[in-house]
Amino acid sequence: MKIDHFAMYVNDLEAVKDFFVRYFNAVSNEMYHNKKTDFKSYFLSFEDGSRLEIMTRPGLVDEQKNPLRCGFIHLAMSVGSKEKVDTLTETLRNDGYQLASGPRTTGDGCYESCFYGPENNLIEITV
Fold first, then answer.
1. What is the pTM assigned to this prediction?
2. In whole angstroms, what separates CA 79 from the centre of its chain?
3. SS3 letters for 73-127?
4. From CA 56, how far away is CA 37, in angstroms rounded?
5. How does pLDDT run along the chain (127 residues), one tens digit per residue?
């Protein structure tokens, strides 16, 4: 068994799609649009075969994203090396994204950095 994909609602579908395409080399399908409900979505595919579905629709509730809440907390993206973690972290910082932590080696030995991506969703960059 394997996880097929993760999905997240967003307010600005195009900005979030462009973020993952630009920084994580995602490949997007054509936008799906249900004209009856005004639901729209993209599937973003990554080079290892994993997928992220980003979706939007009218009437979304966008509450503050407390990192200590129960439920899904962050999306971790593996980039392959410490050097790539460092480089991408610096690129994102220079492009105005807020760094939450790192780059650092965590207590369990992972090398990572965390930052707030589009719409303040927490993104972890790891080896």
1. 0.92
2. 13
3. CEEEEECCCHHHHHHHHHHHHHCCCEEEEEEEECCCCCEEEEEECHHHCEEEEEC
4. 10
5. 888 999 999 999 999 999 999 999 999 999 999 999 999 999 999 999 999 999 999 999 988 878 777 778 899 999 999 999 999 999 999 999 999 999 999 999 999 999 999 999 999 999 9
Q: Which structure tokens are listed for 80?
A: 């392959």
How would you classify residue 35: left for phi > 0, otherwise alpha for psi between -120 and 50, otherwise beta?
alpha
Q: What is the DSSP string of 10-72?
A: -S-HHHHHHHHHHHH--EE-PPEEETTTTEEEEEEE-TTS-EEEEEE-TT-------TTSSS-
